[in-house]
Amino acid sequence: MKLFIYLALIIIGLCSTLLNTPNAQDNGGHVMVMTMEGAIGPAFSGYLETGIARAEAENAQAIIIELNTPGGLLSSTRDMVSDIVESPVPVIVWTTPSGAHAASAGTFIMYAAHINAMDSGTNLGAATPIEMGGSSPAASEDEGGDANQEAMKNKALEDTSAFIRGLAEMRGRNAEWAQTAVTEAKSLTAEEALKENVIDMIATNRGELISKLHGREVALKNGTTVTLDTDTAPVKEFKPDWKVSFLSMITDPNIALILMSIGVYGLILEFYNPGTMIPGTIGAICLIIGLYAMNVLPINAAGIILLVLGLIFMIAEAFIPSFGILGFGGLAAFVVGLAIMFDSDAMPGLTIDGGVIAGVAILGAIIIGLVVFLTVKVYRKEIDTGVEGMIGKKAEIVEWKDDHGRVRVQGEVWSAYADSNLDLKAEDTVIVAAVNQTELTIKIIAT
């Protein structure tokens, strides 16, 4: 009986293993579908790398990437292009849905694909590597600044042009138009792209795409040629998990700016009013996430310096009341630092929204204004309740002789004197005219 149970368990285990093991030799393997919607960055680069590895492990016969992107980081784009070119599984990139675009970095990914396609009503192109550029103030002031900026721009254009031409020649696509997409920011609709030999097909839905892929031969980098058998192939979606979605969101430069701003403003409020906890906690979390995003994104050294300087000045306002001089000066440095912090040349297609910068500036002005207002209010309260606050207050004579004596002010007895002899007696009322803190005496005038 025990032997029977052991055999049964072994058989069940073997069956389970066989069922869960991918069928390595099945030419009718499934088609994996991946979705990339948003800016190209480290999140999608890692997602693609994981997807290709998973497709190979599961013996998928092809990967379809449904793409919709405004552009992204050149470094991540190069990583993704390399992964696609070296992929042991055919990669099909499809710009979809209608209204989507494969702009800038997306154009490189489309050109790298073994097979590419577009939905009707989509477009690709505008792959110029400098979208948000412009010479820095320092460069403009320098005699050779403009020439240096132009040289750097030409260098970036030449490098990127060579990159996309190489992809076009490798895949047998239109290299001439690819270069104009980089040098002149040209774009094409799906129909124009098909006519210009930029894409392989137009498909208005996933079913049509899979049907058109059937029978296509794909030459892989490892030297093998694969014939796609997608007519009855099952489709398996591999969607981005929450980590990919979260990383993709925070590495958007606009989101990174907002997180950094919330972090800094939260810490300023916490420093001004220690023990509140809520602004400090939220600020610290946002600042850490923002710093992580900055570590991933290409940054400008001048922007970072201004950012740190502005942060120091604004925090100093909470400890050294300057009635707004440090606070608003720091805010100006902070906002300018945020505006120029990211290296625009390395983020084609991504722009810093002017509304975000304006919002950060307005919020900062409100917070600094609030800190200054509360500081002034506290300062006035200290004057009103301190020694100087006795000026103009009524005082009661305790004892008096000629031009000096003692008076009671706000429950305290003080030595007092007058500019001339006064005929005063106990319980007479006088008014404090001045205070001498060193001698703790006061001048009085009779009422």
Topology:
Blueprint: H1 2-20, E1 31-37, H2 42-57, E2 62-68, H3 74-86, E3 91-95, E4 101-103, H4 105-112, E5 115-118, E6 123-125, H5 137-141, H6 145-171, H7 175-183, E7 187-189, H8 190-195, E8 201-202, H9 206-213, E9 217-219, E10 225-227, E11 235-237, H10 242-250, H11 253-272, H12 278-296, H13 301-319, H14 325-340, H15 354-385, E12 394-401, E13 404-409, E14 412-417, E15 429-436, E16 441-446
Parallel strand pairs: 1-2, 1-11, 2-3, 3-5, 4-6, 5-8, 14-16
Antiparallel strand pairs: 6-7, 9-10, 12-13, 12-15, 13-14, 15-16
Instruction: Compute the number of strand runs.
Output: 16
Rounded Rg: 36 Å
* CATH topology label of the largest domain: 2-enoyl-CoA Hydratase, Chain A, domain 1
The percent of residues in helical segments reads 40-55%
- Average pLDDT confidence is 82
Rounded to the nearest angstrom, the distance between the terminal CA atoms is 116 Å
Low-confidence stretches: 1-28, 131-141
What percentage of the residues does DSSP assign to strands (E)? 15-25%
- CATH H-tier superfamily of the largest domain: 2-enoyl-CoA Hydratase, Chain A, domain 1
Outline: elongated
Characterise this structure:
By secondary structure, this protein is an alpha/beta fold. The protein has 3 domains: 21-241, 2-enoyl-CoA Hydratase, Chain A, domain 1 (Alpha-Beta Complex), CATH 3.90.226; 252-385, no CATH class; 388-446, Nucleic acid-binding proteins (OB fold (Dihydrolipoamide Acetyltransferase, E2P), Beta Barrel). It is 51% helix and 17% strand. It has 15 helices and 16 strands. The strands form 4 sheets. The chain has a 6-stranded parallel sheet with strand order 8-5-3-2-1-11. The protein has a 5-stranded mixed β-barrel with strand order 12-13-14-16-15. Helix 2 (42-57) runs parallel beside helix 3 (74-86), helix 2 (42-57) packs antiparallel against helix 10 and helix 6 (145-171) packs antiparallel against helix 7. The radius of gyration is 36 Å and the shape is elongated. The model is unreliable at 1-28 and 131-141 (pLDDT under 50).
